[in-house]
Amino acid sequence: MEPTQQHQAEQVEELAAGNATRACFERFQSCIATLNGEHRNYLEARFADLKLWADSVGALAHGKASLDWRLSGRPRDIFLVTGLLDMLEKFLECYKTAVIEDDDEDGVEEAEQGIDEMTENLAWIGSAIRRFGTKSRLQKADMSFEHDRAGKDKQQCDQLRAHLICIMKSRPTEHAKSEDYLQDFHNMEIHGIQNRLVEANLRRWHRFRYAQRHSDILRASQAAQNMPMHVISEGSAPDSAAVPTNTPAPRINTAAAKQRNEANDQGEARTIAGPRYLGANTKDSRDNMPDQRSLQ
Q: Region (Disordered): which ranges (predicted)?
C-alpha cells in the first residue's frame, strides 16, 4: 500500500460515522429496554428505520465499503451525517425522560417529531450518497474505457464489436454464419449511426465490467478482514412476537424502494452482450433506427 493510501486508511479507522451510528444503536436499545407499550413500539419502528439506513449506506461496514471510507475526502458530509446522528441520540434521551420522569405529553410529542425528522433526513442523505456513488462509478468507468479497451479488455471488446458489426452487416441467426466472423468483421469499416451504435454498446458493456470488478474488490476486502458487512447483533432486533398490529411502519421504505430501483437500473447493463440486443433483420433495424441526434 502506498504511504498516502496507508495514511488515509489510518484516518478512516477513526470511523466517525460508524461510531456515531453505534452510539445511536446503543441509545435505542437502552430506551427500548426501559419503555413499554406504545412508546416501546414507536421506538422499535424508528430503530428499524435506522438499521435500514445503516445497512443501505454501509455505516457499520469495514474497509472500502464503509461510509467513512466513501466520505473520507468530504469532511463536510461526514460532519453532516455525524451531526444528525448526535441530534437523534439527544432526541432519544429527551423522549425517554419525557415518558418516564416528567410524563409530559408535549415533551413526548416534541421528541417524537425530532426523532422522525432526523430519521427522514438520514434517509434523504443516504439516497443522495447512493446516487453520487453510482454517478462516480460510471464516470470512472468511462474514463478508463479507452485504456481498458486497448489493454486487459481488448480481446473481449474486439469480439463484442465484431459481433455487433456482424449482426448489422450479415443478418445472421442467433449465431454468426461464419466461424471466422471475428477476423472477417472486426476490421470492417462502418460509418455514421452504425458506428455510434457499436460504440454505445461497447461503453455500456464496459460499465458493466467495471461494476463487476468494483464489486469483486469490495468482496475481497471484506473476506480479508474476515468480518461481516452487517455488524448488527441478532439480539438487538425487536421482538416481532410482541409487536401489535398497530405498530408504526418504518419511514425509510421510500428510500429502500429507490435503492432497489437504482440497483435495477445498474443491472440493465447485463443485457447488452446478448445477440438479441440488435434486431436480426437489418431492414427492420433501419426502419426502427433512432434519430442520429439521440445517439450523439
A: 234-296
From the list 3, 128, 133, the residue with the least C-alpha distance to 65 is 133
267-296 per-position pLDDT tens digit: 544 444 444 444 444 444 444 444 444 444
**Cα 183 to Cα 179: distance, rounded to the nearest angstrom:** 9
* Cell numbers describing residue 21: 451510528
Distance CA 205, CA 161 (A): 11
Residue 173: DSSP 8-state? -
Contacts 24+ apart (CB under 8 A), 113-117: 114/87, 114/88, 115/46, 115/88, 115/91, 116/46, 116/251
Stated length of the chain: 296
DSSP annotation string for 189-204: ---HHHHHHHHHHHHH
Q: Report d(CA 131, CA 126) in Å as an integer.
A: 9
CA distance 86 to 105: 23
pTM: 0.49
**Measured distance CA(197)–CA(155) in Å, rounded:** 19
Distances (CA, A) of 95 to 26, 107, 119, 122, 243: 15, 7, 15, 19, 20
What is the pLDDT, as a whole number, of residue 231? 47
Tens digit of each residue's pLDDT (9 = 90 or more) over 60-75: 888 877 888 888 878 8
3-class SS of residue 167: helix
